[in-house]
């Protein structure tokens, strides 16, 4: 997997991460709906961040340690088979937006459909994570 050590967090941190992830999702949705004129990569970056934080929130809730990475595939691999998040390892496609694409400007054109799929994927992962974590006590 990775040479980085896995870190665990107090279970209460899951709801904090979930709120932050929802904020990232909401920001991506607002930019998408506003027909954002800035860098479209920013919309997908926020969607990727929402997905990453939702996965980490679910892992925290389950008591599963994880390395400090942006690689969604590594995070997905940590879930028990019956708890694999929606889209599974296909989420790795968003890794580039947390890394190299943050520092590049539109040399690979993003279609409106690709941007929409990213935001919709973030929404599905948010719904899934809320189901895993449940209502705050």
Spell out the key features of this protein.
137 residues, mainly alpha, Four Helix Bundle (Hemerythrin (Met), subunit A), 0% strand
- Count of domains: 1
Global Rg: 15 Å
User: Class in CATH?
Assistant: Mainly Alpha
Regions with pLDDT < 50 over 5+ consecutive residues? Answer: none
Helix content: 55-70%
The CATH topology assignment is Four Helix Bundle (Hemerythrin (Met), subunit A)
Number of strands: 0
CATH homologous group name: Nucleotidyltransferases  domain 2
N-to-C CA distance: 34 Å
Task: Give a written overview of the molecule.
By secondary structure, the chain is mostly helical. It has a single domain (13-133), classed as Nucleotidyltransferases  domain 2 (Four Helix Bundle (Hemerythrin (Met), subunit A), Up-down Bundle). It is 55% helix and 0% strand. The chain is built from five helices and no strands. The protein has helices at residues 13-33, 40-62, 72-77, 95-98, 112-133. Helix 1 runs antiparallel to helix 2 and helix 1 runs antiparallel to helix 5 (112-133). The radius of gyration is 15 Å and the shape is globular.
In short:
The protein is mostly helical and 137 residues long. It is built from five helices and no strands. It is globular.
What topology emerges from the helices and strands here?
Blueprint: H1 13-33, H2 40-62, H3 72-77, H4 95-98, H5 112-133
Helix pairs in contact: 1-2, 1-5, 2-5
